[in-house]
Design brief:
Helices cover 19% and strands 34% of the residues. It has 350 residues and is an alpha+beta fold. The termini are far apart.
Length: 350
């Protein structure tokens, strides 16, 4: 009798976990810069995630200018956006992201945030340079960032931003979210920002970074029902409903009013989710999409809309960068004395 009870418990536990999938939403070790070198020969963009926004630029730009209008999810391209009360010139100038080399994980996202010194609540969002598109087909990308689509299935195939680049498809109810984060004993709160297929953004509270070293912070959905018999069961049309997805929208760091301001440093390896599938994988008798093309047309329109939305913002940034002073003697430009001031000082003993 006891043996039968144990087998029954094991069976129930297996059944409760069988319908859950685990996937890496974003892996920063894949987002190192590896193409499009700058004037010093350093790569500036990430090959897998490069996007060409020159195609939405106006006719007043030259072909060379449009060819330079590229961005990607390379770590150094990520933005840190303060709440309005903290958005001062000194805070913004001392806040940025960098590639960091971890002995354990390789390349990870490093972030420096300079919070206000005054005693009031402040928050900073670490966001990708553009909203990650959910319907971008696979492509061949050369060392100059030229994109040549290769996905014969088009938008309905596997997205270029899946498999650890910011998008997970076929997501029903999310059961858990986990973040590999490196803490330096700061008492600030960490939130993960997610966007669903309807465009709704949700902040998931992961905990506090008041520890030293790497740790996996986990959020478990309190509204997730493990027992299938207690769930609300509904039937939905299978076609042409779009497959639900989740995309990564960034992190949010919250600093309470009673905590010290100034510099904050943290590192992030990846974000993972455990979720229920929205639709089971099935071998259907008729290829509905090949006959009607409803999803293809719908997702193509969404892709164009996403491209136009982030492209216009990137064009404004490109124009601002073109206006910026780039002289080698600019103290804010170089890193060596020669580069910063345009001359090499003479030693005092000469």
């Amino acid at each position: 009798m006891k043996r039968i009870f144990i087998l029954l418990v094991v069976t129930l536990l297996f059944a409760a976990s069988a319908f859950a999938e685990e996937a890496i939403l974003i892996d920063f070790s894949k987002l190192n810069a590896d193409i499009v070198n700058d004037q010093r020969g350093n790569p500036t963009q990430n090959r897998q995630t490069v996007m060409d926004y020159g195609q939405v630029a106006g006719s007043s730009y030259t072909p060379d200018q449009k060819a330079a209008m590229k961005t990607s999810l390379a770590i150094t391209n990520w933005d840190v956006v303060f709440s309005s009360s903290s958005r001062t010139v000194s805070n913004i100038a001392s806040t940025y992201t960098r590639e960091a080399e971890s002995k354990q994980f390789g390349t990870v996202l490093g972030v420096r945030v300079h919070f206000p010194l005054e005693n009031f609540y402040s928050k900073a969002e670490i966001k990708p340079p553009f909203e990650i598109p959910a319907f971008e087909p696979q492509a061949d990308i050369d060392d100059n960032g030229q994109i040549q689509p290769t996905d014969s299935n088009g938008i309905t195939g596997v997205s270029r931003f899946e498999d650890g680049y910011g998008v997970v498809k076929n997501v029903g109810t999310i059961r858990s979210v986990a973040v590999n984060a490196y803490g330096l004993q700061f008492p600030h709160a960490l939130n993960v920002l997610l966007i669903d297929a309807q465009g709704n953004e949700k902040a998931v509270f992961m905990g506090y970074l008041n520890y030293d070293g790497w740790a996996e912070l986990t959020w478990n959905n309190p509204q997730y029902i493990m027992e299938v018999r207690n769930r609300e069961l509904r039937l939905y049309p299978l076609y042409p409903q779009s497959t639900p997805f989740v995309k990564f929208a960034g992190f949010r760091i919250d600093r309470d009013a009673d905590k010290d301001g100034g510099d904050f440093i943290a590192y992030f390896k990846d974000v993972k989710i455990i979720y229920d599938k929205a639709v089971l994988d099935q071998d259907r008798d008729i290829d509905d999409e090949a006959l009607w093309n409803i999803i293809r047309d719908r997702e193509t329109a969404k892709k164009i809309w996403e491209m136009e939305r982030f492209g216009q913002a990137q064009i404004l940034r490109y124009l601002e960068d073109e206006k910026k002073a780039q002289e080698v003697w600019d103290p804010l430009y170089g890193t060596t004395i020669q580069e910063r001031y345009g001359f090499t000082p003479t030693p005092a003993n000469q």
